[in-house]
Design goal:
Low-confidence stretches: none
Largest sheet: 7 strands, mixed
Number of strands: 11
Order of helices and strands: EEEEEEEEEEE
Strand content: over 45%
Structural class: mainly beta
Helix content: under 10%
Distance between the termini: 40 Å
Mean pLDDT: 94
Length: 118
């Protein structure tokens, strides 16, 4: 069983930046794809970004050019650098693991709150 622990959320003003981190631990053999998903109040979860073990990435259109996902395979850690934050980025951000770049998540973290004030 794999555990995911997120950190780095908080309150920031619009235009500011935050960096989220997610460390995986437990029964890790090969983590193929790591990613971030967010859920705003009253809305469904939406994919923010994913990154493969080889460094391929995909992003939601709403965050392209503002957010950057990266990972340290040696540390089983994924990061999300969020710049030019907007109030509509306010959500709980969840770290997730995937088998592929197009399939559903199979493991979730507990989530970290990101709040962007206007």
């Amino acid at each position: 069983q794999v555990q995911l622990v997120e950190s780095g959320g908080g309150l920031v003003q619009a235009g500011g930046s935050l960096r989220l981190s997610c460390a995986a631990s437990g029964s890790i053999f090969t983590i193929h794809v790591m990613g971030w998903v967010r859920q705003a109040p009253g809305k469904q979860r939406e994919l923010v970004a994913r990154i493969s073990s080889g460094g391929s990435t995909n992003y939601a259109d709403s965050v392209k050019g503002r957010f950057t996902i990266s990972r340290d395979n040696a540390k089983n850690t994924v990061y999300l650098q969020m710049n030019s934050l907007k109030p509509e980025d306010t959500a709980v951000y969840y770290c997730a693991l995937y088998e592929t770049m197009i399939g559903p998540a199979n493991t979730w973290g507990q989530g970290t709150q990101v709040t962007v004030s206007s």
